[in-house]
Amino acid sequence: MCQLLGMNCNVPTDICFSFTGFQARGGLTDIHQDGWGIAFFEGRGCRVFLDPRPSTDSPVAELVRSYAIRSLNVIAHIRKATHGDINLENTHPFMRELWGQYWLFAHNGDLKDYAPTPGKRFRPVGSTDSERAFCQILNTLALRYPDGPPPVAELHESLRALAAEIGGFGEFNFLLSNGEVLFAHCASRLSYIIRQAPFAEAHLTDQDVTIDFNQVTTPRDRVAVIATTPLTDNERWETIAPGTLLTFRDGAPVEMQNCATRPFFRPTSCPSP
Amino acid sequence: MCQLLGMNCNVPTDICFSFTGFQARGGLTDIHQDGWGIAFFEGRGCRVFLDPRPSTDSPVAELVRSYAIRSLNVIAHIRKATHGDINLENTHPFMRELWGQYWLFAHNGDLKDYAPTPGKRFRPVGSTDSERAFCQILNTLALRYPDGPPPVAELHESLRALAAEIGGFGEFNFLLSNGEVLFAHCASRLSYIIRQAPFAEAHLTDQDVTIDFNQVTTPRDRVAVIATTPLTDNERWETIAPGTLLTFRDGAPVEMQNCATRPFFRPTSCPSP
């Protein structure tokens, strides 16, 4: 199994604090030694740092930890290989372009005997179940919406159905982002926290590091951090219920409960809760 | 205008020496200050480092220069913006997946009023003429060869024709690689050198740095380095003739002169020169 970390914000924010704790799980406080990766959206562009080495022993991870890249959407992953060799092409997050947007994807879990009919358009480069699932998602979306992305509630519903379908093959926790929104699917284990004013101190679980968010924020900042398990031990994290897809935008989940059961629902006609 | 650097080898080789000289052109010995990028194939996977800051003032460039990533195919670019803002999505090299392979592309030159009909599949994320040209190349190849790559001589000929067509809009020097071969198209300025036994010393043009390749090679190594202008001042670089596409494999250009005039020629039936 692997570990996921995601961040979605309303102002560009660095992930140095959370990454410090997360990085420790790649060989120091946990066993996820089979590579790691982190990807940052900056505007429409993307920086992807991948390393098949353990994150605790990676010069690239040191750079990421010390070089404060500010981003609205970040996806990180540390790997405990279940399918596919330990090499660069099997290292998450994976990236593709669809509709003139980059899409990033990272997966935690294990899909058994998952061999979908290969799509014509997006094909895996490596040999993981995860990249196969990512390509399957994108091939389905590209066929269904050939001209461009649908409204976010419709995309949410399509992804929810796809997640349930692929989740029939095993554990399918994932993070997916196009730089505007971040989708988080919980199959078994995924938590999140929203940090906003009034800000407080936070202390990492995996390292003895404390930060006072009052010192590094403005009152309007809002940041959602999503992780396989909580990264801090003095804050209240929300556990996402298995079988749930959340869509984060501007640092909080978009309310779509009332829309979720209607296929291809447009947000403009969604009744208020 | 921009500067290109490419490397194609028969054994995984680090690019630290060449990159040291190249990096200096991003603001120190030359004016290309509008960002830089470098991408390394490792197996089927790719590491792409991008930075919209000048390469002489980039912590990411420092990491690349000091962390010896060994690769068979490398493409690097430093930018002097002509089309498109200075931001991450306009920073070369660009990457896409086609046929289950990653493709990397970087361009030097200036395409005037280049606005091809947008393809259905590969779309630019940023606003450069370069990314439009890359997407046009991939859309054409994907339509022409939907199931997978053709033999390399056929691909060479298709790319040669595409380069001539797009080159009608302006200067179109580019490097393109799928990790197996590296295509280098010279429209105006591009040189290369093949380093193989007997190896000698080399001295950079842009920095006072010397390397003795005898100390870091084995007799079977062969490395082709391709650059906008020669990176060393004591070696003989070959100037590529404008209008030429070279295909590098295993550290040397593949001989295709006798095949190049025949459309969709298969290498197996190509007569010896």
UniProtKB/TrEMBL annotation, chains A, B:
Gene3D superfamilies: Glutamine Phosphoribosylpyrophosphate, subunit 1, domain 1. Residues 2-251 form the Glutamine amidotransferase type-2 domain. PROSITE patterns: GATASE_TYPE_2. Keywords: Glutamine amidotransferase. SUPFAM superfamilies: N-terminal nucleophile aminohydrolases (Ntn hydrolases) (SSF56235). Transmembrane segments: none annotated. Coiled coil: none annotated. This is Class II glutamine amidotransferase. It comes from Denitromonas iodatirespirans.
